[in-house]
Design goal:
alpha/beta
């Protein structure tokens, strides 16, 4: 398939940027200085920069299926270390989204091949919260709640990496946040799971989970 239409889109986009701001690309080539690392889902409907209306250079991004942070994933950990140790980001945002295909597949125990090994991490989250999930009235509600709980658990995983722990030990200003994006209205919602060096993971996790338990499912 010919991809010339994408190249045309690119040229039009670049021309529009220059028309709006003649120095835009010159500044972009000189340095990268974002304050935020976004760890999100690879879903094509969840474009990180656009959701929070930030320009290129203002948001460092890592995306994978279902925004999972695994302590053996060298790709994710390398991005995290560069963002924290080199770029000195002040905020790490773990952002999931409702209707996440990876979360739904894990919840429904679908057999999809290789990806099931990755989705096993989300199934572990589901088993951890099984009694609460089973108490919800519908499959849709259970799927949405698992999307939320997955974000909370991934904030814990980020906070327990050696990268983040070392940053906090040396007094670096760094906070890890848990958000969820709603495809239906384009709004991100804070899941009240924000970790920094002054907070204990256990109590914050408990508070966030309890709030979800008493929250109406989306």
């Amino acid at each position: 398939m010919n991809l010339s239409h994408l190249q045309e889109n690119n040229r039009r986009w670049a021309a529009n940027r220059i028309a709006e701001d003649p120095e835009f690309f010159k500044r972009l080539t000189q340095q990268q200085n974002p304050e935020y690392l976004w760890i999100g889902c690879a879903d094509s409907r969840v474009p990180a920069n656009e959701i929070v209306d930030l320009l290129p250079g203002e948001l460092f991004v890592h995306r994978n299926v279902a925004n999972v942070v695994v302590h053996t994933d060298l790709n994710c950990l390398s991005v995290l270390q560069y963002a924290v140790d080199v770029l000195k980001v002040k905020h790490i945002i773990v952002c999931g989204h409702y209707g996440c295909g990876g979360v739904i597949a894990a919840h429904q125990n679908l057999r999809l091949g290789l990806i099931n090994n990755w989705l096993r991490h989300i199934q572990d989250v589901a088993e951890k919260h099984r009694s609460h999930l089973d108490s919800l009235a519908s499959e849709e509600e259970r799927g949405s709640r698992l999307c939320e709980l997955n974000v909370v658990e991934q904030v814990v995983n980020v906070s327990q990496t050696t990268v983040v722990e070392s940053a906090w030990d040396r007094g670096q200003d760094l906070t890890v946040h848990g958000w969820i994006y709603n495809l239906a209205d384009g709004i991100v919602r804070d899941l009240s799971m924000s970790m920094n060096a002054d907070k204990k993971i256990g109590p914050m996790w408990q508070k966030a989970v309890e709030m979800l338990h008493h929250r109406e499912p989306v």
